[in-house]
Q: What sequence folds into this?
C-alpha cells in the first residue's frame, strides 16, 4: 500500500513537471523567435517569413544599431541609473510608509490610508504633472525627474499588509522596551524581515523604470540624458518616417533607407530591451510567491 502511494506521488510530480516545462516552453518560444528573427537576413524573412529556421543568418540589424553605439551606451547608463536609484528610492519610501500604516496606535493612520487610496483613484493629469515638475520644481533636463517622487500606492499597501502579517507586534514592543527608537526598529528589525516582499516589489518597480520612456520624452531634451527606450523609439520612428515618405526622400536618404534591415533591426531593438530583464528575472523569481502572497496562515 505504501509503495503504491509512493509511486502515485512520484508519477504525479513527473506529470506536473512535464506540464510546467511545456508552459515554460510556450512562454519562452516567442522570445526565441524574436531573437532568431533579429539574426535572420532580410532575404530569408522576405522568402519564408518569420521562422525558427531561417534560410540565412545575418547580424545586419545589430550592425545598424551599432552605428548609434555612443548614444546607446550613454542611454544604457542613464537607464541603469534610473532603474537602480529609482527602485531603491521607491522601495525605501514605500517600506517606511507601509511600516507607519501598519502601526495601529499611529493617530494619522486612517487619514494617510485614505490619502493613499485617493492617489490610486485620481490623478492630476499630464498637464498638471508637467507644470509642477517642470515649472515649480524646475526638473526639466534633470535626472531627478525620472526617479521622483517615488511613492507607489500599491507597493505601500502590499508592504503594510506584509508587515502586519509577518512582523509580530511583540517583537517591536520588546525593542521599544529595550530603548530602541522608531528609526532603529525600522532599519534593524523591520527591513531585514521584509526582504522577500521588497525584492518582489522591487523587481516590478525596476521593470517599470526600465521600460519607461514617456517621462523622458516629456522632460528630457538633452540627448545625453535620454533613456535607452527613448533612443530606441527615436531610431524606430526614423525608420518609419523614411518608409512612409519614400516619394519625398532625397537620393542620399533613399540610399540610406535601402541599407537599413527593417525587420531585423526592430527585433534587435526588442532584444536589447528584453535581455537585461530576462537575465535578472531568475534571481528574483524565488521571492515572488513569498513576497506577493501576503497574509497567509503561518505554521
A:
Amino acid at each position: 500500500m505504501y509503495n503504491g502511494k509512493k509511486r502515485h506521488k512520484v508519477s504525479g510530480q513527473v506529470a506536473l513537471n512535464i506540464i510546467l516545462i511545456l508552459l515554460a516552453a510556450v512562454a519562452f518560444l516567442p522570445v526565441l523567435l524574436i531573437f532568431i528573427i533579429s539574426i535572420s537576413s532580410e532575404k530569408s524573412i522576405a522568402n519564408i517569413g518569420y521562422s525558427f529556421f531561417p534560410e540565412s543568418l545575418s547580424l545586419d540589424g545589430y550592425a545598424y544599431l551599432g552605428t548609434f553605439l555612443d548614444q546607446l551606451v550613454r542611454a544604457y547608463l542613464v537607464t541603469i541609473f534610473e532603474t537602480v536609484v529609482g527602485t531603491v528610492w521607491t522601495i525605501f519610501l514605500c517600506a517606511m510608509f507601509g511600516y507607519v500604516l501598519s502601526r495601529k496606535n499611529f493617530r494619522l493612520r486612517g487619514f494617510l490610508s485614505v490619502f493613499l487610496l485617493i492617489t490610486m483613484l485620481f490623478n492630476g493629469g499630464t498637464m498638471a504633472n508637467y507644470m509642477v515638475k517642470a515649472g515649480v520644481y524646475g526638473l526639466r533636463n534633470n535626472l531627478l525627474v525620472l526617479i521622483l517622487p517615488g511613492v507607489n500606492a500599491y507597493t505601500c499597501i502590499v508592504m503594510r499588509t506584509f508587515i502586519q502579517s509577518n512582523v509580530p507586534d511583540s517583537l517591536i514592543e520588546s525593542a521599544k522596551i529595550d530603548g530602541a527608537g522608531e528609526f532603529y526598529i525600522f532599519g534593524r528589525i523591520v527591513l531585514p524581515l521584509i526582504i522577500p516582499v521588497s525584492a518582489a516589489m522591487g523587481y516590478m518597480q525596476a521593470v517599470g523604470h526600465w521600460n519607461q520612456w514617456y517621462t523622458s520624452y516629456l522632460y528630457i531634451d538633452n540627448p545625453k540624458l535620454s533613456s535607452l527606450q527613448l533612443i530606441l523609439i527615436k531610431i524606430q520612428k526614423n525608420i518609419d518616417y523614411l518608409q512612409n515618405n519614400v516619394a519625398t526622400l532625397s537620393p542620399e536618404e533613399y540610399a540610406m533607407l535601402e541599407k537599413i534591415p527593417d525587420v531585423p533591426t526592430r527585433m534587435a531593438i526588442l532584444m536589447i530591451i528584453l535581455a537585461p530583464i530576462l537575465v535578472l528575472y531568475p534571481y528574483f523569481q524565488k521571492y515572488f510567491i513569498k513576497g506577493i502572497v501576503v497574509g497567509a496562515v503561518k505554521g
